[in-house]
Amino acid sequence: MSSPESGSSNPTTVFDAVGETGLRQLVHAFYRRVPGDDLLAPMYPVAELPAAERRLGDFLIYRFGGPDTYLHERGNPALRMRHAPFSITPAARDRWVSLMDAALLEAGFPMEVTAVVRPFLHEAATFLINRA
Ligand code: HEM
Question: Does the beta carbon of 34 lie inside 6 Å of ligand 1?
Fold first, then answer.
């Protein structure tokens, strides 16, 4: 697949539909689940969670057609490189995806928005697998 940092079907629609508020809610619902997860919690130091939440939020806002604050603060997303230090096995990928699916349900986006965001996140997570 192509890199999760570019391309995609009609990315502006998502930001237009749910705005910064919607995407921040999604990311908040995801990160609220991380500390209780046996596989993922050890990867994210508790003190870093608020900053991590902001980075993923900024990235998704940029990626789905909102302001490009992420690029100004972090530069090129280079997500495979940035995830290289973490052991993203297929099991870790599946766990990340299941927490994100629960967060998506909680966010309650319109169906057509979920239909764009969900496959994007699933494919991006697959793209980031870096260990057997
Ligand atoms: C496949 C399972 C994944 C795991 C286990 C994982 C894990 C992590 C961890 C531990 C961090 C460091 C937290 C921090 O920012 O301080 C991180 C950062 C980040 N992740 Fe993931 N991630 C996964 C998938 C994804 C996906 C699918 C995306 C994008 C759609 C993503 C986007 C990001 C971004 C934007 C950052 C911050 C990068 C930066 O600017 O430093 N991650 N991830």
Answer: no
Token pair of 79, please? 């997500």
pTM: 0.94
| Ligand 1 pocket, mutate which of 1, 55, 73, 89 (most atoms under 8 A from CB) | 55
CATH number of the domain within which 117 lies:
1.10.490.10
**Is residue 94 situated within a structural domain?**
yes
Residue 7 lies in a domain: no
Alpha carbon distance 11, 113 (integer Å) = 10
Residues 29 and 14: their CA atoms lie apart, in Å, by: 18
User: Domain limits at 26?
Assistant: 12-127
pLDDT in tens for each of the 132 residues of the chain?
457 876 555 545 899 999 999 999 999 999 999 999 999 999 999 999 999 999 999 999 999 999 999 999 999 999 999 999 999 999 999 999 999 999 999 999 999 999 999 999 999 999 999 999
